[in-house]
Amino acid sequence: MHPGVQTQTNGAQCTSNFVFSNGSEVFLGQAAHCSGTGGETDTNGCDSGSLPLGTPVTVEGAAKPGTLVYNSWLTMQAKHETDANTCQYNDLALVKIDPADVAKVNPSLPFWGGPTGLSTAGTSALGTVLSYGNSELRGGITQLSPKQGASLGDTGGGWSHTVLTVTPGIPGDSGSAFLDRDGKALGVLSTLNLLPQPGTNGVGNLSLELAYANANGGVGAVQMVPGTTPFRGPLL
């Protein structure tokens, strides 16, 4: 198991992003909306429905289901979050890996390697971004999974990055990892944008999402686990 494997939550297929740990437990990240109970246009986590914590999540490669232990949407609703940007763009969930499967976990991102650390600086316009989507709509053609592109800049007070890749993220890629050009973990694929920039994706800022989880999530001091495979760098 590693970043980029498919997850299934009540029939909804998504792509995992990074591996996390609080020192005693191991988690795989996915998007909070992957356990949403509303429609595709329900993207505001402060008023959108979600399956409860404790929901089983099937993780590709695992012998036993993982368990949803943190969901930013549920947390924001319980906290009565009022900041509009946080409500709109905070889209992170953590799936606890069953102890029987922890030894199978590798934190390295396929194809790209890394992550080398956590990005806290956001992106600049036209800065290189790298991703790995694993939508079932691609029929298992892994050559289409690695994507390289550029950031069009930060939005939502830094909570989100608008990115354009050679092929955009599609349904099933939701939750997948984005790296910056140095291999640092930048964000989590959240939305496919139709307006005002068709074909772009909205990528949640992982450093802000993780800080929110640590301040409010009740799962301990969670940190992203760096990859063990060297980062290969952007393609020329």
TrEMBL record:
<dbReference type="InterPro" id="IPR009003">
    <property type="entry name" value="Peptidase_S1_PA"/>
</dbReference>
<protein>
    <recommendedName>
        <fullName>Serine protease</fullName>
    </recommendedName>
</protein>
